[in-house]
Amino acid sequence: MEKYGDMVLRVAFTYVKERQLAEDLSQEVFIRCYQSLDAFENCSSYQTWLYRITVNYCKDYVKSWSFRNLIPYSLIKRNGQEFDSVASMVMKKEDNDALFLQVLKLSVKLREVLVLYYYEDLAVEEIADVLDLNPNTVKSRLHRARKSLKYHMEGGVILEK
């Protein structure tokens, strides 16, 4: 957990976009890893195996009813009286880190390859292994993600597909 905890947390955050929820998912990932440690076959590195478990668990969670139908805590003001508008939330986050915010707005397919490539420093082949994709698919998703980010950062509308 000490060695890979931050990495698992970052990957989980890119899926759920809420720190506390990402921390909960990270704990669940490590519990799953511990429970299935005997199934680890050493065909790949432990880090790749851990990425794979994290990505799969986060994808399953994002598809779940509870994630899609509950209001995230971050949308509720601290005093509980009213909701922040999406626009004001985006404005606040853009002030802090515009680029990472734009990365989070990408579709999951584009976002996951960007995060694994730039934030986790994985090679294209490693990303292909983690996501069970062809390396050329990873390259094309990276290209589309970069193009979309560039377009949006220059004032356009983000392209998601």
Automatic annotation (TrEMBL):
Give the domain of life: Bacteria
Record's Pfam families?
Sigma70_r2, Sigma70_r4_2
Matching entries from InterPro entries are given as: RNA_pol_sigma-70-like, RNA_pol_sigma-70_dom, RNA_pol_sigma70_r2, RNA_pol_sigma70_r4_t2, RNA_pol_sigma_r2, RNA_pol_sigma_r3/r4-like, WH-like_DNA-bd_sf
Which GO terms are recorded in the biological process aspect for this UniProt protein? DNA-templated transcription initiation
Record has Transcription as a keyword: yes
Looking up CDD domains in the UniProt record yields: Sigma70_r4
Q: What is this protein called?
A: RNA polymerase subunit sigma
Question: What is the species of this protein?
Answer: Virgibacillus indicus
